[in-house]
Write a sequence for this structure.
């Protein structure tokens, strides 16, 4: 009897402390009854430092403005693989990891198979109108070109064409016969195509039914659409290079009026794409016979690209077992806000939460910024290959998240490589009530044994059965994917980020991270975890069954 009274007294004291002091931060998003005694403290939960995430994100986005001298003719390449913009981003992450008390290293990607590219030094595309005798330099982006000659490190390759005629992409057998006849005349030209360059992102209902069905059911599990994209690309390149040797480029359709794609490749194309915005494309297409273009590109082959993985380690009680909390910090030639400065900011925000609260997890956590994701997850490939002896239990991967878009709304996809892992974590994911709190959106669970189209794919694919991976990826159709425009102020930019969504996503990922690194058999609990556990007890009635 005395023992029961003592236990009741202790529970009463603990609840009083929880409810009347600020000792323990509280969690938002739990499903509580109106009479729940901790309701008032829920609103006070701050969780991950959103201002810190915002500052990290802004610093990464601003690199396109601060690190390049465009007035002197320098190309602003953002944080693209191997550029000084990517190097600056690595320095920012390293410095902030040091300030947080992590044990950071900048691990250079040192593998000849991964460190080569065609560095575009300069290019211009001038559009000329023969009727008005006017010209304008286009705001556009051009793929690198694969030379026909042998490749030498440091060698400069130039491509220069004047007054290239523009021909519409054929849409019938007779059209292709006519185009082939024209090509045989030996005069260089470019095609302008009604097919959007990325195929599966165009929300226009004119897209074939099959593509629309795939977009509806398979994003972001994009095996069919990605496969179709690669087949289309490879067939097109072989077709053009074999039968249309005088075609010097294609101008793909763009559905955005003031932004253009910036999918700059590192390997080069025999027939490059010239990405322009939808306004320019429509102007050319409507009056194609009256326009020509001048096209100049200079590139240098680089066989030893310098890029880094930035790794901040927070030791756990079982140091020989590791959990990776990661995102990539590179981007294409734009601010790269949603893809994915904000994802990297969230990773750093999680690191700040763990270090400031002095949380000792069960497993060692490595907070990682991977380099070179855009050209093919190069940083993740290098890390996996050079850490074979590391026991990696979980990979918590961030990709593109937290962008504003209402028409259509964006879905947050939580993608798992194992079905059992998905079932375990989905209860944790649901706790945040993402869709209700964000609005005009949805959240879906996806099971894909090879992981998401992100850095986690490398670990799911190359360590099958040994690693559990989860990726957070907001998509379809995200219209600003890889977009740049209006002096780098339109497209995937900082001003298009949603900070309420960022707060909810950060809380969601924190829930998942603590569940995997702290809750499971850990003797050390964080304040956030203690409050979460208490709420769970209240919900399932355990605190009411003391008599």
């Amino acid at each position: 009897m005395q023992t029961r009274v003592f236990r009741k007294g202790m529970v009463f004291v603990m609840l009083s402390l929880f409810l009347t002091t600020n000792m323990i931060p509280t969690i938002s998003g739990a499903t509580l009854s109106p009479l729940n005694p901790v309701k008032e403290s829920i609103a006070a939960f701050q969780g991950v430092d959103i201002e810190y995430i915002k500052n990290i994100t802004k610093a990464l986005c601003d690199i396109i403005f601060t690190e390049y001298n465009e007035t002197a003719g320098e190309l602003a390449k953002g944080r693209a693989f191997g550029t000084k913009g990517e190097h600056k981003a690595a320095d920012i992450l390293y410095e902030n990891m040091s300030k947080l008390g992590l044990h950071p290293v900048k691990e250079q990607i040192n593998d000849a198979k991964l460190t080569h590219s065609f560095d575009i030094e300069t290019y211009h595309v001038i559009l000329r109108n023969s009727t008005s005798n006017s010209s304008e330099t286009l705001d556009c982006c051009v793929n690198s070109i694969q030379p026909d000659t042998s490749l030498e490190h440091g060698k400069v390759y130039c491509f220069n064409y004047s007054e290239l005629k523009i021909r519409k992409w054929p849409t019938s057998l007779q059209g292709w016969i006519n185009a082939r006849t024209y090509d045989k005349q030996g005069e260089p030209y470019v095609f302008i195509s009604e097919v959007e360059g990325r195929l599966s992102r165009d929300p226009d209902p004119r897209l074939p039914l099959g593509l629309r069905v795939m977009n509806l059911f398979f994003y972001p599990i994009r095996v069919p659409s990605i496969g179709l994209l690669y087949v289309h690309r490879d067939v097109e390149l072989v077709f053009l290079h074999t039968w249309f040797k005088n075609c010097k480029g294609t101008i793909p359709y763009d559905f955005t009026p003031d932004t253009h794609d910036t999918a700059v490749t590192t390997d080069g194309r025999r027939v490059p794409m010239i990405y322009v915005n939808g306004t320019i494309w429509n102007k050319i297409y409507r009056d194609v016979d009256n326009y020509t273009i001048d096209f100049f590109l200079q590139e240098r082959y680089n066989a030893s690209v310098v890029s880094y993985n930035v790794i901040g380690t927070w030791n756990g009680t079982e140091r020989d077992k590791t959990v990776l909390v990661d995102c990539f910090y590179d981007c294409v030639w734009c601010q790269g806000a949603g893809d994915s400065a904000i994802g990297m900011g969230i990773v750093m925000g999680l690191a700040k939460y763990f270090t400031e609260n002095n949380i000792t997890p069960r497993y060692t956590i490595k907070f990682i910024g991977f380099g070179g994701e855009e050209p093919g997850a190069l940083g993740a490939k290098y890390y996996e290959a050079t850490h074979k002896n590391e026991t990696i239990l979980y990979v918590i991967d961030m990709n593109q998240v937290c962008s504003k878009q209402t028409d259509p709304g964006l879905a947050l996809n939580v993608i798992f490589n194992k079905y059992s892992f998905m079932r375990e974590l989905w209860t944790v994911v649901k706790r945040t009530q993402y869709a209700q709190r964000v609005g005009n959106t949805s959240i879906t669970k996806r099971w894909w044994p090879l992981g998401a189209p992100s850095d986690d794919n490398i670990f799911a694919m190359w360590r099958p059965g040994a690693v559990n991976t989860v990726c957070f990826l907001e998509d379809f159709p995200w219209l600003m994917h890889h977009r740049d425009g209006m002096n780098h102020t339109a497209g995937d930019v900082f001003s298009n980020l949603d900070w309420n969504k960022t707060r909810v996503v950060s809380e969601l990922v924190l829930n998942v991270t603590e569940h995997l690194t702290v809750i499971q058999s850990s003797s050390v609990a964080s304040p956030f975890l203690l409050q979460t556990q208490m709420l769970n007890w209240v919900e399932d009635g355990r605190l009411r069954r003391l008599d």
About this structure: The first strand starts at residue 103 and ends at 108. The chain is about 35% helix and 25% strand.
